[in-house]
Amino acid sequence: MTAVDVRKIREVEVAALAWLSAHRGDFALGEEALTVDGQVDLTWKPLGELAQTCASIRLHTAPSDPLHACVSDLLRFAWQQTGRGELFLRLQRLEPFATYPLEVYSVFAAAGLRHDGYEAAAATVARTRGWRLTEQEPTRRLGVLRAERRSGIYRPERSAQALRRTWLGGRPEPWTFERSSGYALTHVVFHLTDWGRTAERVPADLAAYLADWLPPWLDTCLDAGMWDLGCELLVVAASIPVPPDSGMLQDAWTRIARAQYEWGALPAEDVGAVPEPDFVHCYHSTLMAAFAAALTAKRLTGDEDSAGAVQSRYGEQGVPG
């Protein structure tokens, strides 16, 4: 059996978080975040993904690990960018039936950062038929239901019903896997497991299906240089009940490490021998590399405090920033 070099995986995480810390200013919300025609994908989406990734890594990292302090600091930065929750209330008034404010807010709520005024306003809207009957793709619906529960909103609709309407929930022919279905299935697993916390929530039939087909899907994505989706699939591999194959993990992480720039960024896709892509084209893949590395390392080592691997490179302070 091939041994997995956990220290190399940790090095990917350390470098990714160092880059994210150095580029935190690029996640900041500008004035356009509250305009009617603001670009959500360039404002709230990156900030929400930063918050979700850092909150998740913090849960999977020992408090004595220097990276725990790093991601905690980035999470605080993200919360401060929202005016400690006040901007969500303003968004609620501008777009009362938009779901993205609740989806982003729920990340902070799950981490214990809450705004009572926004939660009350969101709960009022959630009681309307207009909110309940909003048409959404099944994977998005699953995510909205999870966001509601995180934010203290409960309604009769069951996640199990939404799950079975997703691509993964239907266990389709494995050869129909493609980029869009790949991203859909990873997010289904994220929602089911609360971002890697509860592997037992993956139904047995889906766990077995993923155990069979995740390795060839991952290999296909990495062969194509799809680093962002590859890292999301590595998160799935570390989140499901069946332990991932060590040979598969060693090969995958070797390729991810080679694709990562020496200063920590990971391009979303293979771009060849060109300068580092701009922030928009590498922030998400870098976040996913950090998260996949943290989750994989914990899965392989259990609850061990492996902070020494980080301290050996950065000293007692861990990642600078």
Task: Describe the structure in your own words.
With 321 residues, the chain is mostly helical. The protein has one domain (6-317): Alpha/alpha barrel (Glycosyltransferase). It is built from 15 helices and no strands. Mean pLDDT is 90; it is low at 304-321.
Total DSSP E strands: 0
Strand content: under 5%
Sketch the major β-sheet.
none
Helix count equals 15
Supply the number of structural domains: 1
Low-pLDDT parts are: 304-321
CATH topology: Glycosyltransferase
Structural class: mainly alpha
How much is the average pLDDT? 90
The Cα radius of gyration reads 19 Å
Q: CATH class, please?
A: Mainly Alpha
CATH architecture: Alpha/alpha barrel
What form results from the Cα inertia axes? globular
Share of residues in helices: 55-70%
Compact description:
By secondary structure, the chain is an all-alpha fold.
Strand and helix layout:
Elements: H1 6-22, H2 44-59, H3 66-81, H4 86-94, H5 100-110, H6 116-126, H7 129-132, H8 138-150, H9 159-163, H10 179-193, H11 204-223, H12 227-237, H13 246-259, H14 283-301, H15 307-314
Helix pairs in contact: 1-13, 1-14, 2-3, 2-5, 2-14, 4-6, 5-8, 8-10, 10-12, 11-12, 11-13, 12-13, 12-14
Main attributes?
321 residues; Glycosyltransferase; globular; disordered C terminus
